[in-house]
Amino acid sequence: MQVTFCRLRTHQWCFILFNVILFHALLFGADFVEEYFLHSLPHVDMKVLEIKDKARKLNMEPLKSNLSTYYILNQPEVCKGKNIFLLSLIFSSPGNGTRRDLIRKTWGSMTSIQGHLIITLFALGMPVLVTTQKEIDKESQKNHDIIEGIFLDSSENQTLKIIAMTQWAVTFCPNALFILKVDEEMFVNLPSLVGYLLNLKEHLEDIYVGSVVHQGTPNRDPHHQEFISLSEYPEKYYPDYCSGETFIVSQEVARMMYVVFKEVPVMVPADVFVGICMKSIGLIPIHSSRFSGKRHIKYNRCCYKYIFTSSETTDAEMSLAWKEINDGKECTWLETYYGLISCKLLTYLDSFKHFHMSTLENNVMYVDD
Ligand SMILES: *[C@@H]1O[C@H](CO)[C@@H](O)[C@H](O)[C@H]1NC(C)=O
Ligand SMILES: *[C@@H]1O[C@H](CO)[C@@H](O)[C@H](O)[C@H]1NC(C)=O
Ligand SMILES: *[C@@H]1O[C@H](CO)[C@@H](O)[C@H](O)[C@H]1NC(C)=O
């Protein structure tokens, strides 16, 4: 009856309704499917239990007495005697003091959310120039928020950076419930992120969450900078891992990671390295589409109030987003809905443009060959 009614009298309405549903399914369907399928139970066996046990009994005291072999700058007291909910470690390049200052003034300035304590620190390696080191020393004396490991800060050394900072976190911040690794180019909406963490109900001690990359493949092009040979990583796919710009681990997971570091090949990209560590401790990453991964999300106030991160944020956008998110103006359900549609559509169009551009560039390269 209904169908006949529909076809005869209001088929236009049905058509419109169908299109609206199709539009939403296309726009949001992938997110739901991803979140559903990328969420499964962690795998536990004897080896994992052994690692768990080792992680619980980790003794970092010897390291504390030998600190100068690992860190140039170190903040051994920042976490002492506090109940910390989230430790944000912002991975920054040594020469980027202006960016750090901007983050200190914007999203990095939050010290507490809904009564939960947040600590924000900058993670650096060593600069090439002595003059840069002098500036960093000054900056550190002023702000007391820089950890500098003893290794050259270069794109090839990012895995070393992750190892050094995880080691720092388990040694000096064992009282932080969650640890956030985030790159300085990101804008982070800490209140929505903390709200999400507070709502995670399952396996709270086993958290590894971010924008999950499913069936990532090693780069097998020998001319490429990120080339991975078959002897370095023989398998076809990487295990699922969280895209490196932003991910969160719980303290227990950080400790387990620290235990297995030495057994994992360092040659793969840093985020894949973390993913392989997680696989060896039986952990499967949790995906949320509110993490942007590598994507820049087109700015829209109500959209930015909802999402967790956006990549490649300019200084101006960072200031604007920070100001507008904290102006106390709430977003209605409809505004959030509209904001999400608009920023998602624009972001898709953008990535399509990038895709198109890079295909064009590739073609040009082949013509040159
Ligand atoms: C402390 O540092 C020295 C010198 O680098 C090194 O030989 C020793 O193994 C280190 N000890 C620990 C416990 O890390
Ligand atoms: C990584 O850091 C080490 C230790 O400082 C340094 O010797 C090495 O040259 C760095 N590697 C690259 C590729 O920058
Ligand atoms: C500083 O950070 C910004 C934002 O990520 C980036 O665009 C810029 O290239 C960085 N500058 C240096 C000197 O690393």
Automatic annotation (TrEMBL):
<keyword id="KW-1133">Transmembrane helix</keyword>
<comment type="similarity">
    <text>Belongs to the glycosyltransferase 31 family.</text>
</comment>
<dbReference type="GO" id="GO:0016758">
    <property type="term" value="F:hexosyltransferase activity"/>
</dbReference>
<keyword id="KW-0808">Transferase</keyword>
<dbReference type="GO" id="GO:0006493">
    <property type="term" value="P:protein O-linked glycosylation"/>
</dbReference>
<protein>
    <recommendedName>
        <fullName>Hexosyltransferase</fullName>
        <ecNumber>2.4.1.-</ecNumber>
    </recommendedName>
</protein>
<dbReference type="GO" id="GO:0000139">
    <property type="term" value="C:Golgi membrane"/>
</dbReference>
<keyword id="KW-0333">Golgi apparatus</keyword>
<feature type="transmembrane region" description="Helical">
    <location>
        <begin position="12"/>
        <end position="30"/>
    </location>
</feature>
<keyword id="KW-0735">Signal-anchor</keyword>
<keyword id="KW-0812">Transmembrane</keyword>
<keyword id="KW-0472">Membrane</keyword>
<keyword id="KW-0328">Glycosyltransferase</keyword>
<dbReference type="InterPro" id="IPR002659">
    <property type="entry name" value="Glyco_trans_31"/>
</dbReference>
<dbReference type="Pfam" id="PF01762">
    <property type="entry name" value="Galactosyl_T"/>
</dbReference>
